[in-house]
Amino acid sequence: MNKIEQVFDKLWQQYTEESPEALKIYNLFKENGEDNIVNDHVAFRTFDDPRVDVDTLGKFFIELGYEEKGDYHFPVKKLYAKHYEHKSDATMPKVFISHLLTKEFSALVQEQAKACVDQIATSELNSIGLLSSGVHWDLDYDVYQKLLAESEYAAWMYVFGFRANHFTVFVNHLKTFKSVEEINQFLKAKGLTLNSSGGEIKGTPAELLEQSSTMANKVPVKFRQGTFEVLNSYYEFARRYPDASGKLYTGFIAASADKIFESTNVGTK
Ligand code: NI
């Protein structure tokens, strides 16, 4: 395994340990005959603090041979994102990193984000291990609820910290499923719940990208006050279409990503 594969492998181990439903779906695909499940992209969340913002996390991937490809604005959720692609190895997943625009929120959100980042040791800030380092701070349930009242994303980041938010199956590489619709039917038949915000399939062939995702599962999380159930991560599925030049589209559609973010919304499940 080369260095990049090791990084993604570690993130995958952590993701499937903390989100057992993703592993369950991965195994259902395998049982269905999928022996080579390719990731379209891996997504990360962070704060806009310059010590950990999009560019800071993106730098780790640039050092691994990635380059910046596009940027995206989410004015309603107050997020900003960039996507990165490997320069020479098209089998490597794309990387999608978003950060919360904390300055557009209350003083509480700004102070909590800063307090969280203040807890991270300098040596960890400069290491690629930061990407899977989880939380560096004690969790307080009252703070969690206050953050949740302002931003679901802020609350998620507070509870789960640095890890992959989700992995995404690259539907084009599957043998037994020809469409996102087929995957959705398969998952629903297995009793899984899909994110239906904006419809189960986000995007259209004309937009060159169709996506769907499961709803995040609740997992027990230890807070200062005791253990509470919190929604963690979802699994995503993406099918890409060729552009006018015949090349598969590799970007993201902000309007669709906006709805995918809602897979961790507390109120929708
Ligand atoms: Ni995604």
Average the pLDDT over all residues and give the rounded result.
94
**Straight-line N-to-C gap:** 39 Å
Sketch the major β-sheet.
7 strands, mixed
Helix share, percent: 25-40%
Gross morphology: globular
Side by side, the strands of the main sheet go 2-3-4-1-5-9-6
Bound molecules: nickel (II) ion
Tally of alpha and pi helices: 9
User: What sequence of helices (H) and strands (E) makes up the elements?
Assistant: HHEHEEEHHHHEHEEEEH
Beta-strand portion reads: 15-25%
Oligomer classification: single chain
Tell how many strands the DSSP assignment holds.
Answer: 9
Rg (C-alpha, Å): 18 Å
Based on helices, strands and strand pairing, what is the structural class? alpha+beta
Uncertain residue ranges: none
Description:
The chain has helices spanning 3-18, 20-31, 54-62, 107-118, 122-125, 141-150, 152-160, 180-189, 254-260; strands at 39-47, 66-74, 79-86, 94-100, 164-170, 209-213, 218-223, 226-231, 236-240. It is α+β, with helices and mostly antiparallel strands and 269 residues long. β2 and β3 form a beta hairpin. The longest helix is centred in the N-terminal third of the chain and has 16 residues, at 3-18. The protein is globular and about 45 Å long. The N and C termini lie far apart (39 Å). The model has no long low-confidence stretch (mean pLDDT 94). The protein binds nickel (II) ion.
